[in-house]
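User: Putative regulatory-associated protein of mtor isoformx1. Structure?
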Amino acid sequence: LRNAQIRAAAQAERRKTATGVRLDEQVFYSRCPSVPTCLAFHPHEGELCVANRDSYSLWDDHGNLQSCHTNDNPTQTRITALTYLNAHDIPLLLLGSDDGAVRVWRDYSSTNRQLVAAFQALGDVPLTARGSGMVLDWDQETTTLITSGDVKVIRVWDTNQEKKVLDMPTGADYPITSLSIDHEGSLLVAGCGDGTIRVYDRRLPPA
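Assistant: Predicted structure:
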């Protein structure tokens, strides 16, 4: 049923473009009460999640605010990363803050939402307003979470076992500003604060 609705919505969008509506047209504009730190579209639903320093808000694809929620992170910290887990089934919302902690919410759009997991994904993270904070990426197929930021390692997590699998030294003197993992969970690519892009292979033995 959901796939049929998505296909119908896509066909409606195609009909709109055929009538001369430009794809780069701004479809909605809204001013948030505080500066957004990160945001993401739900992969399968018409939902946008926008996080600021200590909370997140949910919007529909017409620009209507649906709900706002606190993340319960400490006062001096800020949310710097978010991603959807299990988006194809019963979705969870994961938010990472610059103190190295992640929180995972079930029923994240409800007033009765539940905190299903919270753990320290990174340790000894310096809190700085100009740092990259925590950056992360998630691979649904392998249920692998990778995290980094203002540290000199990329930490790999097996979320099924809630277990740290590996710490990979970055070899960089600058913080990691962005991360991505391939669909097999083997290759990791990191963007660094010195302007370099580095690719790491988990299958190779330590140097």
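The chain has two domains: 27-120, 124-206. Residues 124-206 form one domain.
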